[in-house]
Specification:
Layout: H1 11-19, E1 23-27, H2 38-48, E2 52-56, E3 65-66, E4 69-70, E5 84-87, H3 98-104, E6 108-111, H4 118-126, E7 130-132, H5 137-145, H6 149-153
Parallel strand pairs: 1-2, 1-5, 5-6, 6-7
Antiparallel strand pairs: 3-4
Length: about 150
């Protein structure tokens, strides 16, 4: 499969990815103290929607749980397989996480709305990891749950 095949840009690809993603590690998750920020309320929504959310904060070294779940400091430390890594990091900070992502080998990586780094996306895609860039997972999941992305965008 080509690198381009792992760069998901269309509704059909997003639908397929969402339908197979149940276990989601959230890289850059915020804590309950930052509940008004997307890096907290998006994973909170995913958790409430019945998905398994695994907190992987970058800051907050004193925090041991977020959303009532144990915190991991690196993706590679998360036990078991991960379907999707939902990333809340600035584009310029993504490179520092690539080796950890590659070591964990998730099925997919989702760069949240406003986050785009084509070099990192291509590197992950070359490792046969599906990548979505610059889209909100909560918005896309809500659209998917409501019955279809394409129909609702019209």
């Amino acid at each position: 499969m080509s690198v381009d095949a792992h760069l998901i840009r269309d509704d059909a690809g997003i639908r397929a990815l969402l339908s197979r993603s149940r276990r989601i590690a959230v890289l850059g998750i915020k804590t309950e103290a930052q509940r008004d920020q997307p890096a907290f309320y998006v994973p909170q929504y995913l958790d409430a929607a019945g998905l398994e959310v695994i907190p992987v904060p970058v800051y907050y070294p004193e925090v041991t749980t977020i959303l009532g779940k144990p915190v991991y400091r690196r993706l590679v430390d998360v036990p078991g397989e991960v379907d999707l890594v939902d990333v809340f990091r600035k584009p310029r900070d993504l490179e520092a996480h690539v080796d950890d992502i590659l070591a964990k080998r998730p099925r997919a990586v989702w760069l949240q709305l406003g986050i785009r780094n084509d070099a990192v996306a291509e590197r992950l895609a070359a490792a046969e990891i599906d990548v979505v860039q610059d889209r909100c997972l909560m918005v896309e999941h809500r659209l998917w749950k409501a019955g279809g992305l394409t129909a609702l965008r019209r």
